[in-house]
Amino acid sequence: MRAQFVLSEIGVGLRRNLTMTFAVIVSVALSLALFGGALLMREQVSTMKDYWYDKVNVSIFLCNKADAATAAKCAKGAVTGQQKEQIEADLKKMDIVESVMHESADQAFKHYKEQYGDTAIASVVTPDQMQESFRVKLKDPEKYKVVATAFAGRDGVESVQDQRNILQNLFDLMNGMNIAALGVMGLMLIIALMLIVNTVRVSAFSRRRETGIMRLVGASSFYIQMPFIMEAAFAGLLGGAVACVLLLVGRYFLIDHGIALAEKMQLVNFIGWDAVLAKLPLVIAIGLLMPAVAAFIALRKYLKV
Q1: Are the C-beta atoms of residues 236 and 16 closer than 8 Å to each other?
Q2: HSE-CB of 64 using CA atoms within 13 angstroms
Q3: How far apart are CA 144 and CA 141, in angstroms?
Q4: Which of 20, 136, 197, 251 could covalently link to 298 via disulfide, CB atoms 3.0 to 4.6 Å apart?
């Protein structure tokens, strides 16, 4: 096959259908940018879970005198010294427990004042209203229910709380955004495929005389179809390249500069450049192969050779 002929035919096809080619590039770029963004969002959620779940604790709050008068679980009165010793001993016996830290009511009051000292309600809170607690670090945070089952409802225990629940709403929101991005990506992908098929059909119709002559002189089907397939692949490659640029620019302005989330949300462990760069070859490969396959399938219908 003469490469010069194929390249010249690709150039002719792109010039004849410049507007539709541009539409293909834009739709492919947007769909692949959303695809890459969804992959990065999923990795960000996973990274945040690994980072925060390694730091959160299970908190076992103990009954105090105020709870004994208001909470049904503390009807037997405030926790006793013996109950606290037994709870701590039982916790340390569990294989899934990495460490146990006791926080007294005075320590809880001090931490509360540090965090909420400027609020109106902080001025009326007293140390005796604060709850003692055990902060339990688990080797596997997913096994919270083992601790909850063992200690919820015991004498002296007001409640058992898993701090992961505080973060779960954030993770649910990010997962919802991820699903929405995938939905929009699917819509854009359908639009891109329709444009590719339509572009191939118009290109095949506009060059029906040339393809007819080639068929008469004995050119193979693959030889005739190759320029059309290469046109679609080239447009998809440009769209993939634009999508890669969008992902890099998005990471740069959202996290490092511009909005600078890394500075404003220093407690969040954002994904690095290595995660973004690792997705770019996949985006390029899909951008190249998807239009080529779509064009090949379309040619079987619109280009009878």
Answers
A1: no
A2: 15
A3: 6
A4: 197
Residue (of 57, 58, 92, 65) closest to 156 by Cα position: 65
Question: What's the chain's Rg over C-alpha atoms?
Answer: 31
- The CA-based dihedral angle spanning residues 189, 13, 240, 175, taken in that order and rounded to the nearest 10 degrees: -10
Contacts of 57 (CB under 8 A, 6+ apart): 101, 135, 136, 137, 138, 163
- Residue 64 near residue 129 (C-beta atoms within 8 A): yes
- If you average pLDDT over residues 134-139, what whole number do you get? 84
Please state, in angstroms and rounded to a whole number, the distance separating the CA atoms of residues 37 and 23: 21
Top pLDDT among 235 and 12 is at 235
Q: What pTM did the predictor assign?
A: 0.63
Tokens of 293: 């396959």
Q: Give me the sign of the Cα torsion angle 96, 101, 102, 105.
A: negative
Q: How far is residue 238's CA from residue 275's CA, in Å, rounded to a whole number?
A: 22
Q: Give 191's Cβ-side CA count (13 Å radius).
A: 17
Q: pLDDT (tens digit, 9 = 90+) per residue, 257-296?
A: 766 676 776 656 788 888 889 999 999 999 888 888 888 8
Which residues neighbour 290 within 8 Å (Cβ) at sequence distance 6 or greater?
28, 189, 192, 193, 236
Residue 217 neighbours by CB distance under 10 Å:
6
Report CA torsion sign: 121, 124, 127, 130: negative
Instruction: Return the amino acid letter for 241.
Output: A
